[in-house]
């Protein structure tokens, strides 16, 4: 059967819908040998900010029921070191390098995008949704007006695919997605983590030094699927779905809900070769259901 | 780094709440003392993430760990039978820097779950012809896994019910020649803190193997960091788990 | 040791902080024999509406990772049948009977509260947060102005404890809690379920006929704890915490986070005698940590 | 209703993917045919909720179920050993209304996982001196659990590889005397739908035991409902699992 796995985002094509979620796959090099080149369509990098960031004091991670809370705090090498030390490896791989961009002011987002726009990165994923830092990010991401303005600002700066990453910690995620679309985004990706907390009752202490963290993993999959379903009915731009994907069926579930591509985050920790398994599973599903392209998924969905 | 579906060969208690598990390894990997692997049981354990454990022995396409029953994963592991399968991601981390030893005496200090990697280091150093001194601490006599301890181990018990009465640091202090030694240790954080104070006092080289909650176990998530004196953090799974004790910002952990 | 388990809500006292979450314990009678009378402090009933409601077509329930999605749709006997057939049993028990009230208009809430105010029910929990019905509920619960007005309307009607139940599907749950407090609520309870969805990939059908459902169970505990922590720092009225409590430690975690009472929902399905276990565990914890009253929990909490 | 920590006494395969488990019951409960219990394994299974299963036999402070491997809970249960413990909430539901039989012949029809409760009903009716006719359908000969089937069972296979060639409804149609019979059935929904059409055709009393996803298993959550002809819904765990087939709104399930 003839199967086309390509996914159009803005003026470019992802080779296939499988990607690794920002912050869980570093800059790709650490996972070398654990996946088959070509089966991974895109690496969404760990957030890159203008200056290097140490991140939050440990403990930064705690396991919860079918999930994890993280409070990494956007620890990253900064845009210059990223270009110098990390980018070459990524560009040498047969994947789309999508740089996840974080900032604490519109100016900062702008400068990171401007700097990277000169390089051969494939596109940008703008993180307006990290719950783990005091300034920026989440604050921007919860107000449709801010989202629209910031998107327009960055749109002005680059012709590369511009993906806005949304937080689920809002009343109406569809309205935020619409604002991104109006601002000129090529796609939206969702969901980032849910705001959460864990307390060790034996010691009566917060389990994370940052007190709150972001919840991800299988626990949040129903929230992610609902969000993707809702958003994909509100905007015309492609939706990239994530949240709790831990096998091929989970990825297919997101595609059925309306996603055009998916990202694997926490699942990488449990199964480092998960993108291979998901790639193979998507292909097998398309063969079984006679789907020719990723667009065919959405029309398959039926009522219970 | 590979993710290997390993078969359990042996799984038996060696002391109250302590088990020893032997399992198959791919012939192509040869983990070093201090390196670790990250386990996911094929059967449900009630937990989501992999769990990191140090090698306590490696050879002939097999490896061993000594593990303590702590929570759901370790309790589930203890129920598994030879023939059951676990997924092991390995080899992780850096290992003990044995090259620095030169002609000094390596002093190996183990506490609690730190016993496994220290035993592996002991075996490896012996094989190299070195004369390591092994000190292992336990709460009380009943908890000592005699079957896995070399005959010349200096065993300490907190309650004095066996061997040296007191903790490993006190035992170390009573050893004569500090100058010509290098310390390698793995155990509870308070023990390693005390050991690094001791090492500073006598200007000894000291290497510690640290624990941290892990996400990926391979350097990608920045979840497992420890603060260092030079500022910022280091990843336990990648730059560690073994660190020069002098590097660590002990006041913050 | 002298331990006082009472919890003051408005002008009344709950005998102890343990309650059963609305919709998971029916009207109490079904669980008879499965718990020790006196260890359960309050039964928060299944939602009661003005008229009987059939609820949504099945399937109404699906299991997810460490959680469940439900789309019951407020199936209930209606206020008159509740009073006639269900209330006597509840009032014969040594528990506070808190009636969970649902409506599709302010008028409907008002009429249910007015009718029940004549009876010996202990108090009211106003459900402004059910994601499973088209009208009312959630729509009210996401707008602070509506919440304040509706609360004030009901406050005018009753002197019994008035608890407003909040949804986590909002940008700022603290703002909604403040609105309830300003409207005259005696307490807020949280969290209701998170909006979620599940799709069966084999059949490409929604698993719930209602398409979306509400996520509850251990999966959502970190979200609930964070919400309780945040809200309890924004309002002076007591906060009643819930979401994923499945053992005594989970309940203690909520009390440490700032809750003055807790509710057990999905946990009842797994362990029908859970309220006994939780009651005993709270008492044991208070003895161990030398806490004399529920108010002492919050001051125990320390940084990581 | 009680929640009892039961001990597994026996757990063995009876056909491919079918197991039989015997476990202890408190002496004080005497579940009826058609009633069920709701299980939670003491060890992790990877699932959250309890799972409902029908009794296939009860006696002497023990009970039995016949279960099919479907998903994580049933696969985990199949790994458990005698001595392991499961928590059982019981007795749930209403059971088959045997009093209605009078002097008619009870015809018992089982398909798939419906075999357990139908076997229990068969045993109970025999003990009462009744002469039940038992019809059990399977996909193919290899899947028949001969060891648990009474000798006089009318066995049907869809592929004709054993016994009556065809499904249970066709087999039933070929039986002579419909008038004097009452139907009791448990199995896949399509089978029970077909059976109730059949029963309507011949104006037979027909009782079906239904399946539904369950939350509480005891009537509190309204999660397990089926639509009924008279409007609205009934709870499978409380008003059911056995219903008069005529009550059910078959067009909506
Ligand atoms: C590099 C490394 C090597 C290790 N080697 C060994 C070994 O050889 N033998 C051995 O028995 N254990 C070892 N551990 C510790 C082991 O990872 C934990 O005991 C295990 O994760 C417990 O899992 P659990 O599900 O049974 O318990 P959990 O329920 O996860 O935890 C039980 C308790 O242990 C604490 N804990 C769990 N994991 C960690 C961790 N990674 N760091 C600190 N505290 C933790 C939890 O906070 C909790 O209080 C090592 C850890 C690291 C990081
Ligand atoms: C009153 C009653 C009596 C039952 N008696 C028996 C019995 O005697 N023997 C037996 O083998 N099984 C029986 N079942 C079915 C049994 O409950 C399921 O097989 C079991 O829940 C599967 O659990 P699992 O975790 O292994 O599979 P899951 O992963 O939960 O499910 C696997 C597949 O089975 C479907 N499924 C699961 N549970 C149900 C359910 N309750 N109703 C319909 N479909 C379901 C799922 O949708 C899924 O497709 C009974 C069910 C009910 C309601
Ligand atoms: C350890 C960790 C670090 C993360 N860091 C980032 C980040 O830097 N930028 C970002 O946009 N999202 C980040 N995320 C969120 C993930 O990209 C993803 O949105 C979320 O985890 C849900 O997907 P999952 O359930 O598959 O993990 C991080 C998640 C985790 C677990
Ligand atoms: C089956 C089911 C039915 C529910 N019905 C109601 C309801 O009628 N009114 C209400 O306010 N909350 C209802 N809830 C929400 C619970 O009361 C509770 O807020 C939520 O489930 C979180 O708690 P838990 O994780 O302990 O279940 C229902 C939850 C479930 C699972
Ligand atoms: S565990 Fe992910 S970086 Fe160390
Ligand atoms: S399963 Fe809860 S009412 Fe039937």
Mean pLDDT of chain B: 95
Shape of chain B: globular
Largest sheet data of chain A:
8 strands, parallel, barrel
Oligomer: heterotetramer
Secondary-structure class of chain B: alpha/beta
Largest sheet of chain B: 7 strands, antiparallel
The percentage helix of chain B is: 10-25%
Q: Tell me how many strands of chain A there are.
A: 16
Rg calc of chain B? 17 Å
Unreliable runs of chain A, pLDDT <50, ≥5 residues? none
Series of H and E elements of chain A: EEEEEEHEHEHHEHEEEEEHEHEHH
CA(first)-CA(last) distance of chain B: 29 Å
Helix/strand order of chain B: EEEEEEHEEHEEEHEHEEEE
Envelope shape of chain A? globular
Strand order of the largest sheet of chain A: 3-4-7-8-9-10-15-16
Q: Biggest interface and its residues per chain?
A: A-C, 51 and 51 residues
Number of strands of chain B: 16
Overview of the structural elements:
The complex is a heterotetramer, with 2 copies of chain A (304 residues) and 2 copies of chain B (253 residues). Chain A is 31% helix and 20% strand. With 304 residues, chain A is an alpha/beta fold. Chain A has an 8-stranded parallel barrel, surrounded by 6 helices. Chain A starts with 6 loop residues before the first strand and ends in a 15-residue tail after the last helix. The longest helix of chain A is centred in the C-terminal third of the chain and has 16 residues. The relative contact order of chain A is 0.17. Chain A has 9 helices and 16 strands. Chain A is globular. Chain B has 253 residues and is α/β, with parallel strands linked by helices. In chain B, 16% of the residues lie in helices and 35% in strands. Chain B is built from 4 helices and 16 strands. A 7-stranded antiparallel β-sheet of chain B has the order 4-3-7-1-2-6-5. A 7-stranded mixed β-sheet of chain B has the order 11-10-9-8-12-13-16, sandwiched between helices. A two-stranded antiparallel ribbon of chain B has the order 14-15. In chain B, helix 4 links the parallel strand 12 and strand 13. The radius of gyration of chain B is 17 Å and the shape is globular. The complex binds flavin-adenine dinucleotide (FAD) (2 copies), flavin mononucleotide (2 copies) and FE2/S2 (inorganic) cluster (FES) (2 copies).
